[in-house]
User: What shape does this take?
Amino acid sequence: MTPDTTKKMFLIAAIFNWIVALGFFFVPGVFLSLFFIAPLPEQSVWVQQFAGLVFMFGLGYYWASRDLHSNQAIVRLAVWAKWGVVLIGLLNVLSGDISWQFMIPASADGVFAVLFVLALRTLQPDPYSRGRASI
Assistant: This one.
């Protein structure tokens, strides 16, 4: 992955997160209805809290687009967070708490997780890792 491609990918990830966050914060019912997700959340405070976290992760991706090396710890955290979204979504689908369509937008997080790992592998080893895996 070239540095230019990496910068663009993290900028796209930031914009993706900001769109999702704003959708969840301001019009969660409309946003989720675009994917035919049911049932719609009834606890707006938790949806808005989640939206705030998604927005802040987008800020981290923006920072990574500007300087990946200095922000690689944020990206490592993001890999785990993105896989967490996929796993938690899958668990909720399997338990019947939400419709399978939720996995459509959640799968985008899985794609970004893979791309983030590929971006991290293009960097020099982290001097603070002491030979441990970077993720």
